[in-house]
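Ticket #4471: structure export looks truncated?
Reporter: QA, pipeline team
Priority: medium

Steps to reproduce: submit the single chain below to the structure queue and open the exported record.
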Amino acid sequence: MATVRRPAFGAAHSLALVLAGRALLVFLAVFTLYGGTALLLGRTSSPPYAYFPEQAEAFLAGRLWIDPLPWTMDLTFANGHWYLPFPPLPALLLLPWVAVAGATGVNTVLFSCMLGAAAATVLFLILEQAARLGWVALPGDNRLLLVALLAMGSVQWQVALSGAVWHLGQEAGLVAVLLAVLLALTGRGPLLVGGALALAMLARSHLALTWPLLMGIVAQRWRDAGLSWPVVGWRLVGWTALAGVPLALAAGGLLSYNWARFGSPLDFGYTRQVLYDYHALKLMTWGWFSLHYLPENLHALLLALPRWEHGALRPDWNGMSVLLTTPALVLLPCARRPRLLVVAAWLAIVLLLVPLMTYYNTGYKQFGYRFSLDLMPAALLLLALASGRQLAGWVVALIGVGIVVNAWGVLAVYAR
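Actual output as written to the record:
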């Protein structure tokens, strides 16, 4: 009997172990960066406006409202109780921790740093898989520079150190979208890909608009495998139907959550939030979404700069241009191939910008434009595609500038 040889399996197993080890090193490096920065700046406990630990504690107690707190900013009062109007994913992720330690035993800064490190790690795996598929030609050290761009050269660094309610949703949603992209790149089934995006919806509902990027990845894989367009089209119909199941379940869950809290599936409780007078007036005058907000949001996204005040350069807390905080993104228009993937990524960015640019709030009391993190999965994939076989020296310099700018941002926001 001939001996059965499995060199391919052994080699693949070894490669998987090496990749897992590298991913672990990325996680530990970024977590050490975030955790060390938090310690140096004295961010050793949850901020006042964390809320999600209290929401997790409420879930464990079988209720939807949270106990009265000394502060009520951004909470909604209805039917004699205070509610957290934001989607519940961070609270769901915190359930095991809260079950063991209680809401007061949770450190949301630590939790946020873990989410930030997870986002960088999943991006690392995304770029590794894209390189294996032949879509990204950058060497390994250059791909790590793009991971550093997300971790330090974008507003992610400042957001990951926050632990506040608004930023926890941002972090959880970013990880879930990146996970969906990774699952699509590695050829996982539509239920898994759609399930990851459904999780993102449970953090920030509009992240479902990343859908074209996932479809583009799947279609590009099939085209690379030699399938004709008619076959790809028909297969996409079936893939979309299956991937849409967890998205529909997530949407149904959110609508049911609203109905149980406020008596209407379409009432998220946002219109009754406790807000600053400035924001409350805007809502009363122009509503939650309006083209009236377009100039202000475009300015925050692309044009806003620091201000010279009292003899010093200070951030504009309403937001600052992504071209200042992450200047390497100027390379995005250079992405050309694979064309299907490039078109899908740009379509996802455009769709995500629709609610962001018509939203009543730029992000407020922030460094940079924090909502830009919603665009980062598609934007960073485009950046990798646009970079060719090597990051140009000027692009590396721009990544460095972004790191310096965001280090300033971390100090400006958290140093006392």
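Status: closed, not a bug. The export was complete when the record was re-opened. Leaving a note from the reviewer for reference: The two ends are 75 Å apart (CA to CA).
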